[in-house]
Amino acid sequence: MKAKLLLIAACFVLATSVAQAQNPDAILSSMDRTAANFHTAQTDFAWDQYQKVVEEHDKQSGTMYFRRHGDDVQMAADITSPDKKYVLFSGGMVKVYQPGIEQVTEYNAGKSKADFESFVVLGFGGSGRDLQKSFDVKFAGMEQVQGVSAGKLELTPKSQRVKNMFSLITLWIDPARGVSVQQKFEEPSGDYRLATYSNIQLNKPINKDVFKLKTTGKTKVIRPNG
């Protein structure tokens, strides 16, 4: 009899936790909790950039790093496949370093710095409250992604300027950790970028050198927008 009661109790707890995870407010609240204590994140990634016109997939993979440094949000991507490349966002500047041709291309985010930062932390340190300020949020149920039962959030930008870039952004949020395990950015043209994340580590020490480009004396710098 005791074993039966324990089994009933365990089933009740499991059912309650699943119901909470399936509640969109619970997903957004988990993001709020993570954002409140967020300092760093490190994750392996796989990107799939699809171009509809030519029906081609450009796939890249590597490791990404995020850090809050005072009021500044920093992101570094160490792309290891198919070609070595580094992407760094810090201080309102986006820098892309291609060691193979010894070139750094720099872009100044300028007035778009706040928008760019919001995309950088989307699902990694961004809060659910901030999400609702910039997007109409629709909860599309739970899906299995990277071995996680993730909450699927469909985001429609409120700003027409952002909507011209991305007609729909979909986040798959791990309700236990409040971070993305998958993201999809869809453009009005039909192009999209699908990103999946694994081996996610939160608030663990990250070597500060990952937020520096390891250039050489031969590296040339290109600034397309001055």
Overall description:
Helix content is 24%, strand content 46%. The protein contains 5 helices and 12 strands. The protein has a 12-stranded mixed sheet with strand order 7-8-9-10-11-1-2-3-4-5-6-12. Residues 1-21 have low confidence and may be disordered.
Would you summarize the structure shown here?
With 226 residues, the protein is an alpha+beta fold. The chain has helices at residues 2-21, 24-36, 113-120, 128-134, 160-165; strands spanning 40-51, 56-69, 72-81, 85-90, 93-98, 103-108, 135-145, 148-157, 168-174, 179-186, 192-202, 220-222.
Q: What general outline do the C-alpha atoms trace?
A: globular
Fraction in beta strands: over 45%
Kindly report the spatial arrangement of strands forming the biggest sheet: 7-8-9-10-11-1-2-3-4-5-6-12
What is the N-to-C succession of helices and strands?
A: HHEEEEEEHHEEHEEEE
Are there runs of 5+ residues with pLDDT below 50, and where? 1-21
Class from secondary-structure proportions: alpha+beta
Overall helicity: 10-25%
Distance between the amino and carboxyl termini: 76 Å
Number of helices: 5
Q: Describe the biggest sheet?
A: 12 strands, mixed
Q: Overall pLDDT, averaged?
A: 86
Assembly type of the chains comes to single chain
Please tally the β strands and state the result: 12
Radius of gyration: 20 Å
